[in-house]
Amino acid sequence: MTYATISVTPLTPRIGAVVSGINLAEPLTEAQLEDINRAITEHLVIFFRDQDQLDPVSLKRVGHYFGDLQRHALKGLSEEHPEVRKLHADENSKNVSGEVWHTDMSCVESPPMGSILYLHTIPPIGGDTIFASMYAAYDHLSDRMKNYLEGLTATHDGMLAFGRFDPEGKYPKAVHPVITQHPETSRKVINVNRGFTSHINELGMDESRFVLDYLYQHIENQYFHVRFRWQAHSVAFWDNRCTQHLAIWDYFPQVRSGFRVQIENSTRQHHD
Ligand code: SIN
Fold this sequence. Notes:
By secondary structure, this protein is α+β, with helices and mostly antiparallel strands. It has a single domain (about 5-265), classed as Double-stranded beta-helix (4-Layer Sandwich). About 20% of the residues lie in helices and about 30% in strands. The protein has six helices and 16 strands. Strands 1, 2, 3, 4, 5, 6, 14 and 16 form an eight-stranded mixed beta sheet that branches. Strands 13-7-15 form a three-stranded antiparallel beta sheet. A hairpin with a 6-residue loop joins β10 and β11 (about 190).
């Protein structure tokens, strides 16, 4: 199906598409926002190239079209832009964000609906991001396994994800169902991730470890993935409710740098 205002080129049958014909640094029209919404619903993560006019103000404006912006557990870019998070890796980095499979901020009661990441500086080679469809991962479980997982809950602990940046920090913890339903499509997804999930609450520790390890291995099946090769000034916009992602840090000591915003889950609506 064609779109009224943008071109959308799928990268795989299950997840990921490149969107062209739009400048995100300019105010967007209602028709453009409807098309972007539709592209995310259909492709789960969408990518934009050549967005070299984006800055923190215009990135916040793009995010705000889709809902209120959510502050990250880690420090914001500046006092002026606390909702914008800087992402930067170079020869001094000991860790980078996202180097373990995760959904963003699943350690809070209401994790973000989505995130928009802009990279202005990329290494000469490497630094790809892989996204996985949690719809595809759920759909490929057997009915017996789906039934087994239904009704279980898991604890998601911010210390697991962020403790390596600052072990003294205080981070949120939250409990979520292991299987959730996307609020807009009603499709079911697997909702545990290596980055944040510490254990399944209704199981003993050994059982929990085995079940989580099985699910993580299943989620990492490449048939559910798209791998995005960044260029300078590319943007990725993902639906955090039905995807996980992994940032590959294979470019040390090169520089990879940009910033991102997260959108609250309460609504996905167009704000003026
Ligand atoms: C993240 O996990 O949010 C970072 C993704 C990336 O750097 O590609």
